[in-house]
Amino acid sequence: MDVHYGPLSVRNFGGLDEEFHRAVADRPPTMAVVEELFTGYALPDRPIWLYTFCARTPSGPMTEVTLLNGDAGESFGHIADHLPWRGHGSVKSWALAVPR
Predict the structure, then answer these.
(1) For a designed S-S bond to 65, which of 31, 58, 76, 96 qualifies (C-beta 3.0 to 4.6 A apart)?
(2) Element (H, E) at 59
(3) Long-range contacts of 78-81 (CB under 8 A, 24+ apart)
(4) Cα–Cα dist 56/34, whole Å
């Protein structure tokens, strides 16, 4: 499969530094989902579209994952744990996995 991905936007509510922005560009949360899908799931022989929204707020973390137009958030609640959250904000990211 060929994978196309990227961050859509980052909102900084305070404390997200340049290291955070580099980490999001290098490995957005959606890529964490793609990596998990490639290790143990039977993938369809058609394009797979994914969208993620991850946030850290004073009330705690929030994660939303849309996979093939359906909510898959509970299964992938940990996908932004690799990011160096040192403040509050959010990141939206996307990926498209296309069979060769």
Answers:
(1) 76
(2) none
(3) 79/29, 79/30, 79/32, 79/33, 79/36, 79/52, 79/54, 80/29, 80/32, 80/52, 80/54, 80/56
(4) 21
10 and 56 in contact (C-beta within 8 Å)?
A: no
Q: Considering only CA atoms, which of 33, 14, 20 is closest in space to residue 94? A: 33
Question: For the chain, which residues make up each domain, given as ranges?
Answer: 2-98
Residue 65 scores a pLDDT above 90: yes
**Lookup result for tokens 């993620």:** 52
* Sign of the C-alpha dihedral computed for residues 39, 35, 95 and 13 taken in this order: positive
User: What is the model's pTM?
Assistant: 0.88
